[in-house]
Amino acid sequence: MAALLNERDIAFQLYEVLNTAALLDRERYSDQTREDFDAVLATAQAIATEKFADHNARGDANEPQFDGRQVRLIPEVKAAWDAFAEAGFLAAAPDVEEGGLQLPEIVLRAAMAWFSAANISSAGYPFLTIGAANLLRTFGDEALKQRFLAPMMAGRFSGTMALTEPGQGSALADIRTRAVPAEDGSFRIFGNKMFISAGDHELTENIVHMVLARIEGAPPGVKGISLFLVPKFLVDELGQCCARNDVVLGGLLHKMGYRGTTSTVLNFGEQGGATGYLLGKPHHGMQHMFQMMNEARIGVGLGAACIAYRGYLAALEYARERPQGRLPGNRDPLSPQVRIIEHADVRRMLLAQKCYAEGALCLCLFGSALFEDSRTAATGTSRARAHALLELLTPVIKSWPSRYGCAANELAIQVHGGAGYTREYLVEQLYRDQRLNPIHEGTEAIHGIDLLGRKTGQPGYSLLFDFAGVDIERASGLLECRAFAEPLRRALDLLDAVTGSLRDQIAADPDRGLANATVYLDLFGRVVMAWIWLKQAISAEEGLGRSVTAGEQAFYRGKLQAARYFCEWELPQMDAQAHLLGGANPVPFAMQDDWF
Question: Helix 344-376 to helix 380-416 angle, to the nearest 10 degrees?
Fold first, then answer.
């Protein structure tokens, strides 16, 4: 089995690029050590390898089944869930006083990377549970937290997010699920939700659904949506499950990837109303749910990065072992065949995969570092700046790894040749799993409109230039990295010019100005990723100055070459995009329905 991830690269990202060890100077983590962080990562790697990777292909080939009474999963999924929970990962981030491990967010997400790389389907159950528990922790009252939070942290209960409805998709402003106040202060929920990942299973005693619904008489649109906790089973004051709630599995959906994660249709209120409990303020449900949605968006980006990374490593291993053909300059048909990694085109494809996968991983961990800084940085100013930059980058963190993860996994199949699209090789499944990520937690168009129509008008936009400018100055003083600094400076200037032009276009005609927001998202992502690769290149060049082994020299040289590839091959593609966007090219927008 090819490696899940590259341990050396994770250490590089955490400790050389993102300086995670500096968190130990913060009061919250003063009782921890780097050895503690590394032990957590080693535990995650071991459990991911032994309990998650072992059934990745089997779970894909044996989808969950619903017999009309219960959902059945292969038994290995339960073993994986139990191992994850027993190791404490469901309670990794919360305070020690709450029963948590009080780990930094970036260490938790680096640990989660191992599980996503090993088996994205089985990793989906704890991933959603952590997010739902965080939502309850933030907005639930003490009674709800007493009843539901500890069982979720212990792995007795799992969690979901129930947003999408039949016919509505991502148009959450139009949801119809309704909530009727009950005499005891709870609500009765009526409606239907679909595409609810992990919405039903037998892994846990209970499933806690985070449901968006409208209280009767609420105003229309997003301003009338509230957030409710709706359990599969009602829970008494002692935290024990009792009566079945009025939440019914309507059926399972069957996707091309993530096939081991149940995707469900849920019906609420078929027998008089499902009991739900209000979380947070009435009519503020969308604002509250954005916490879990944004957490999930970063998680989807990280999962996409990990799937791309595993496909890259599988392709690299195959290319180093597979003999085929001879170099073009060799005219001797009797000479031995060469390993395909010696073919220039294969090395190009591998370099592109390395660039996409390692860049995406660094981007997602950087986002986790910003989240950590937004909570625990030393000053209020630093916390606010980190929060603002993360708000700006979240659409990119979700979308760029998802889009270019697909490109990486497609290249992994191409490196394998005909073997790549057979199910005997991992890369076939990885591509199918990856293809879901450009849809998960919002399409590229949704994130493009969010970025261009809203986020570029917020403080984080100017902070991007400030933060990147610091690294440009650092790079300007280094022998090799200075070659990447000026292209990034120019790219930032071009991005700002295009953004200004599009703002003017939006002011004149919002529909037309936002029509090509997805292209803007891609252009924006190229600039951000050029910055991410510059950050890695700086650390790599500094590492070259102190490394002594051939292996370390090769590692850092590989980083510099990948940065050079992005700077010279990927970044310049923004020029054509900038020309079309800045010039308000009308061709796609002017296309008429009946012309198709």
Answer: 160
